[in-house]
Amino acid sequence: MSGQTRLPVSNQSSQTPGGSPAAGRKPWPHLRYRVTSGGFLFVLAVALTGAGAFLSGNNLLFLVFSAMLALLLVSGFISRLVLAGLELELLLPEHVSARMPSAARVRIRNLKRLTPSFSIELSELPGSSILQDPVYFPLVPGRAMVEAAVQVVFPQRGRHRENLFVISTKFPFGFLRRSTTVALRRETIVYPALEPRAGMEILLDSISGEIESHARGDGRDFYRIRPYEAYDSARHVDWKSSAHTGGLQVREFSRDRQRTVEIFFDRRIAPGQQQRFEELVENCAFLAWGLCERGERDARLWVRSQRFALAIPEEGDIWDLLKFLALVEPLMLLNPGEGDQAAEDPVDAANLQIVFSVPPDAAVEVGI
């Protein structure tokens, strides 16, 4: 997902067969105008001056009226010149999650040879952009590039191919805000949100405790010395530590066998359960991410779904799983007895098994 996206603001670019934006541009962007509060006052002043000039026939008022009209014309020409020849580039981090602010960088390059661009503002198009806050560039010299740090937020997981931004300016006099829409076309894979939902942190702590308890056993690697408990074997008593503390102490050893957490994600849903499916996707992503981030001792993950299986770390890493969850689509069940079956039996009945499923009978079908 890392890389660059370039698009001249003056052109809705097409893409080359390789997926990179084309480099063509037009000399003038398509502009939209919005009158500012100062512009309303100036237009009112122009109207009053013109009315006074025509009613009185005063040559001085005609001269002032002509100068004010010329000022408006010059303002429109300069604003077009300021917005022409700009190129926008957005650099995203390699890994991006939905609804989580990510640090990115935005660059504006002025392709004009001599003419600088003044008072440039980059903002979001309501309902379609990812930019958190507007970015202001006071000056972009000719044949130069200006860069700024920004925060971007993608609203949902999935494959994002286009994001819309607005580049605008009130230069030179602030009477009108002139703006143009920029479409940045690049493919970005956005992972599910990694925010904990209700009960997921408790589940994560519980699984971590299970893994930790499983790490203690009858293996060969020394784990720790602890007080004697009922049913502990006498052959594990550490007599030296017992004599030192005045109470029985035993040696614990780690198990030779690694603990595997087996996660099954059921993609089957009935009509009207799309929102619940999205919640399960985020729950699964949070749990897997939490287990990998904590670096549980000797923990392995085996993640399965319909037509998908991944063993971590043998066959891939957490980013491969998050990419799958970013693009996964539900399997719609139109009738209760139809559609794909959940999955085969668990890989190993001794594994710690977790099921994410919308249908209530999924745990029965996978034998869990």
Structure in words:
Strands 2, 4, 6, 7, 9 and 10 form a 6-stranded mixed beta sheet that branches. The chain has a 4-stranded antiparallel beta sheet with strand order 1-3-5-8, with no helix packed on it. The protein has a 4-stranded mixed beta sheet with strand order 17-16-14-19. It folds into 3 domains: 6-191, Immunoglobulin-like (Sandwich); 200-216 and 259-365, no CATH class; 219-254, no CATH class. The protein has helices at 37-56, 59-83, 200-215, 239-245, 274-294, 318-327, 362-365, and strands at residues 6-8, 32-35, 86-91, 96-97, 102-110, 117-124, 135-140, 145-152, 158-169, 176-191, 216-217, 221-227, 249-254, 259-265, 268-269, 299-305, 308-312, 331-332, 352-356. Helix 5 (274-294) packs antiparallel against helix 6. It is 28% helix and 32% strand. It is elongated. Residues 1-28, 339-343 and 362-368 have low confidence and may be disordered. The chain is α+β, with helices and mostly antiparallel strands. A hairpin with a 2-residue loop joins strand 16 and strand 17 (308-312). The longest helix has 25 residues, at 59-83.
Number of structurally distinct domains = 3
What's the order of the H and E elements? EEHHEEEEEEEEHEEHEEEHEEHEEH
Cα gyration radius (Å): 32 Å
Strand content: 25-35%
Characterize the largest beta sheet: strand count, sense, and whether it forms a barrel: 6 strands, mixed
CATH class of the largest domain: Mainly Beta
CATH superfamily of the largest domain: Immunoglobulins
Briefly note the CATH topology name of the largest domain. Answer: Immunoglobulin-like
* Helical segment count: 7
Quote the average pLDDT: 77
Structural class: alpha+beta
Task: Please provide the count of β strands.
Answer: 19
